[in-house]
Amino acid sequence: MKARKYFRVGAALVLLGAFAQVGARDRGFFSGVKVRGGFQLTSKEDQLSSMLMGFGLEGGYSFRFGRISGEAGFSYKPGGQYLHDLSLMPNPAGWIIDTERSVDSRKNQLDGLYFRTAYEKPFQLIGLRIGVQVGGTDFRQEYIADISGKRTSDGREFQDTYNGIHNKNQLSINPFAGLSISSENYFLEIQLIGLIYTALDYVHEPRREPGKGQYTLWDTTVNYKRFVPHIEFALGFRF
């Protein structure tokens, strides 16, 4: 909530005072830098924050009919540490898990390098923008666990520890559209972007081999397709 207030205050200050003369830039090549921030419009998923952050380097050309630009940068959507529900853990080995002495701690995040291309049509007060972002949606899950309990086969205690990192890298195409307000060098962008990514969840599954006291692992990851709309703000400077 605090972050949203900061974005609103910053946008209001820019609109009221920073851009006294608004209009299209002269024709020709331009370059610039951007700092991004935003929040998603739907409820949180995959134990990720609703916030979206990033920065980029922009370059392009202004024509009589508008402005075409390309941007390379890095985006980041953080996630906090959380405890995995042990009741969801497959238990074909028949173990009795001691939930008081067991823990499976995880952390997710979404980040990655991206490239954007956009077309912008400046008018007297604002400019309308439309484009696509490619990349910037690599999903990462870290986990560390220590599971204790008793085996139903013989009543003996067991301890199962595991840890690791899983990534889901994909080339996502994420559309966006919005508006911009700019002076000669400074600008503000406000736009809607739909992030398309694939989340994953690690599933730890030990199985007892029939007739043996040995256990084998049938660990897998489950994938989930996501489309998450965000409102995004970008403050920048063009050279």
Structure description:
With 239 residues, this protein is mainly beta. It contains 1 helix and 14 strands; from the N terminus they run H-E-E-E-E-E-E-E-E-E-E-E-E-E-E. The protein has one domain: Porin (Beta Barrel). Helix content is 7%, strand content 64%. The longest helix is centred in the N-terminal third of the chain and has 17 residues. 24% of the residues are buried. The N terminus is likely disordered.
Q: Which keywords apply here?
A:
239 residues, disordered N terminus, mainly beta, eight-stranded antiparallel beta barrel, 1 helix, 64% strand, rod-shaped, single chain
Write the layout of secondary structure elements.
Blueprint: H1 2-18, E1 28-40, E2 51-63, E3 66-77, E4 81-83, E5 95-97, E6 103-122, E7 127-135, E8 138-151, E9 157-168, E10 173-182, E11 186-203, E12 206-208, E13 215-217, E14 220-238
Antiparallel strand pairs: 1-2, 1-14, 2-3, 3-6, 4-6, 5-8, 6-7, 6-8, 7-10, 8-9, 10-11, 11-14, 12-13
